[in-house]
Amino acid sequence: MPRLAVGRRRVNRVATISVHTSPLDQPGTGDAGGMNVYIVEVAKRLAEMGIETEIFTRRTARDLPPTVELAPGVLVRHVTAGPYEELDKEDLSGQLCAFVSGVLRTEAAFEPGRYDVIHSHYWLSGQVGWLAKERWGVPLVHTMHTMAKVKNLLLAEGDRPEPTVRVLGEEQVVQVADRLVANTAAEAGELIELYGAPEERVTVVNPGVNLTTFRPGPKDAARARLGLPPGAHVLLFVGRIQPLKGPDTLLRAAARMLEEDPDLRRRLVVACVGGPSGNGRARPSHLVDLAAELGISDVVRLEPPVPHDELAGWYRAADVTVVPSHNESFGLVALESQACGTPVCAAAVGGLRTAVRDGVSGLLVEGHDPRDWARALRRLLDDHGLRAAMSRAAGEHAAAFGWSATAARLAEVYTGAMAELHRTPVVVNL
Ligand code: UDP
What we know:
Keywords: Glycosyltransferase, Magnesium, Metal-binding, Transferase. Catalyzes the transfer of a N-acetyl-glucosamine moiety to 1D-myo-inositol 3-phosphate to produce 1D-myo-inositol 2-acetamido-2-deoxy-glucopyranoside 3-phosphate in the mycothiol biosynthesis pathway. The protein is of the alpha/beta class. Helices cover 40% and strands 17% of the residues. Uridine-5'-diphosphate binds at residues 27-28, 33-35, 37, 238-240, 273-274, 305-306, 308, 311, 330-333, 336. Uridine-5'-diphosphate binds next to helix 1 and helix 11.
């Protein structure tokens, strides 16, 4: 039956779509990472502003309840689409019809007008949002998080190119979304230049960091809790273990540093926190093997993923957090580390150029030559004065990125999109 969107202006409830990964999942392994943290943090801040969020995600276990209250005003809705476990992200496009049907059925059980706006995350969710938007007569706001065309331009060794079906799917979402949210101006440029997004529909909203969880604290106490020696030089990698994140670059740089200065072996610790993901899942012991091959197993400490809130201890314990990604839409890890007062050495790619102030709150390195990384890391480890100055600047830089600001900007995007849609009432015939 056709529906006519009529003049409502305030956002009361958002339908957030997150098909391939649940906000209830532990970030840092598999498909769960920054996007999960983003969705949870934004939903909580929107709830504080009086805006409810219902997050639709795929049911990944038989015994999951239909709904879970994540926080007051934040509800997770499990949608059955495909087998509960063991369905790769790459195969999920075949389940989108089932997923969208679950979303539409849920809404149909309520009075019309339950959702004021849809916010979809990642292209698979954008496909679902596309149909739901037309059915409900509400605007679709979409965030890409990563883009196939960008990824394919910056492939790491051993990484597979993203398939054409994803490229086409993303192009479709760009065409139909009422607003596209880009994490940084650089991402906005990519949406416009690579995907032909109309400039007026692209808005930059920086992601944030939880400034209550991630704040400076005593290094020695943090190290004692993690079993790290007080006098060690600690280089930290946090994130999913996959070629895209470039952990190999860190290990190779460490090997290089040890070659140049064998005495460093007594003090160096390279800690990697996170589990395998994407292509990395096919070779879960890759980092163990690489450390052995490079002869640095004794300085490398591999840790399974830790709950998001507990990561602050790792950042405080580290001298430098290393983010050698080949591509990064933003890089929440870089912000979290800086919020804890730990400088970052990051690749000069994508959102990391915004997340890190080069030469001020950390260093940006061009390319992935281990020699360049070894030089930058050595500079940070050796120069205490520089590190102390960067530590202060890191805290100040991160303080400008609270999640409340992200949520407030998104609420503006939602109301803007709603106002525009209602100026031109849309009749949808399905
Ligand atoms: N993370 C976590 N536990 C871990 C490893 C990572 O909670 O063991 C979180 C980390 O705090 C960050 C997110 O996972 O918020 C990773 O986000 P980022 O933007 O750095 O990378 P993405 O996963 O989006 O590629």
